[in-house]
Amino acid sequence: MKPVTVRVPAKVNLQLGVGPLRDDGYHDLVNVFHAVSLFDEVTAVPADAPSVTVEAAPDAQVAIQNVPLDGGNLAMRAARLLAERAGVEPNVELRIRKAIPVAGGMAGGSADAAAALLACARLWKADLLLPALPELGAEIGSDVPFALLGESAIGLGRGERLTPLETSGTFHWVFATADGGLSTPAVYAECDRLREARGERVPWPPAYDELAKALAAGDARALGAALANDLQPAALSLRPSLRRTLDAGRELGALGSLVSGSGPTTAFLAESAEHAAGLAAALAGAGVAKQVVRAYGPVPGATVV
Ligand code: ATP
């Protein structure tokens, strides 16, 4: 058995509509996912017992100290689930090389879970389970199926019922990372709290046709105007400094800006690769981010390299 390496992208939510809190504690979502060119790599190596190692990709400056190395690692949880379904021992060493910010709202953990599913399915020659990977992934987390699919897609339900969205051309992005993560459950709880305190009724479901049209036409200006994130007020409430970052991006000419998912990473849409380079340099110079990275989208989902 030879090691298998899978490359998997980060995501940005172009629209994250959060419905009212359901009785089961979840929210209905209307979630437009877009895969961007920040990649983690997961290598599955045959071993005598399960284990995980994590390192930052060269030049990526990802803070990896909060990534668990035990059974709590989402990649290892995915490998164990697959082993159980395939009827094999989960004897694999997972080597994770991260370029996706940790707890940054770009679904890095979910991406690693998706990569581990594909890498282990290939390592263990569990070809019959390949079509079932999205369903297995959804058991690990609602962002995992999209990391397998990639490109652009709309997710309904908890975000896991996916339909691909037609996209033309390439969109150029700048991402600003922030010190420390934001816990996704804490951001949802703050969203509920703010809505309750303001007596807000959530209009549901939200329209997304302008966004879908902009993607299909490859129209960055229209896409910039249509970006929307219902979790943004909650992320800003928990991390007020993000407002300065968003304001700086707008003042520096971004076509659109928003908090990525539950944050604290912020995303800025540029007009072209050159515009993105200028915007990234200006944002870095403004001192409103820990780190500024450029990426483009859409890109394919988890792929064996
Ligand atoms: P999302 O956008 O899906 O809400 P996120 O990008 O904000 O997620 P992740 O990077 O996925 O956040 O990590 C969230 C937490 O999950 C981390 O703080 C970490 O403790 C845990 N975790 C488990 N496995 C991993 C992994 N392979 N990579 C990163 N974090 C992991």
TrEMBL record:
<comment type="pathway">
    <text>Isoprenoid biosynthesis; isopentenyl diphosphate biosynthesis via DXP pathway; isopentenyl diphosphate from 1-deoxy-D-xylulose 5-phosphate: step 3/6.</text>
</comment>
<dbReference type="Pfam" id="PF08544">
    <property type="entry name" value="GHMP_kinases_C"/>
</dbReference>
<dbReference type="InterPro" id="IPR014721">
    <property type="entry name" value="Ribsml_uS5_D2-typ_fold_subgr"/>
</dbReference>
<dbReference type="Pfam" id="PF00288">
    <property type="entry name" value="GHMP_kinases_N"/>
</dbReference>
<protein>
    <recommendedName>
        <fullName>4-diphosphocytidyl-2-C-methyl-D-erythritol kinase</fullName>
        <ecNumber>2.7.1.148</ecNumber>
    </recommendedName>
</protein>
<keyword id="KW-0067">ATP-binding</keyword>
<dbReference type="InterPro" id="IPR006204">
    <property type="entry name" value="GHMP_kinase_N_dom"/>
</dbReference>
<feature type="binding site">
    <location>
        <begin position="101"/>
        <end position="111"/>
    </location>
    <ligand>
        <name>ATP</name>
    </ligand>
</feature>
<keyword id="KW-0418">Kinase</keyword>
<dbReference type="InterPro" id="IPR020568">
    <property type="entry name" value="Ribosomal_Su5_D2-typ_SF"/>
</dbReference>
<comment type="similarity">
    <text>Belongs to the GHMP kinase family. IspE subfamily.</text>
</comment>
<feature type="domain" description="GHMP kinase C-terminal">
    <location>
        <begin position="211"/>
        <end position="285"/>
    </location>
</feature>
<feature type="domain" description="GHMP kinase N-terminal">
    <location>
        <begin position="73"/>
        <end position="150"/>
    </location>
</feature>
<keyword id="KW-0547">Nucleotide-binding</keyword>
<dbReference type="InterPro" id="IPR004424">
    <property type="entry name" value="IspE"/>
</dbReference>
<comment type="function">
    <text>Catalyzes the phosphorylation of the position 2 hydroxy group of 4-diphosphocytidyl-2C-methyl-D-erythritol.</text>
</comment>
<feature type="active site">
    <location>
        <position position="143"/>
    </location>
</feature>
<keyword id="KW-0414">Isoprene biosynthesis</keyword>
<dbReference type="InterPro" id="IPR036554">
    <property type="entry name" value="GHMP_kinase_C_sf"/>
</dbReference>
<feature type="active site">
    <location>
        <position position="11"/>
    </location>
</feature>
<dbReference type="GO" id="GO:0050515">
    <property type="term" value="F:4-(cytidine 5'-diphospho)-2-C-methyl-D-erythritol kinase activity"/>
</dbReference>
<keyword id="KW-0808">Transferase</keyword>
<dbReference type="InterPro" id="IPR013750">
    <property type="entry name" value="GHMP_kinase_C_dom"/>
</dbReference>
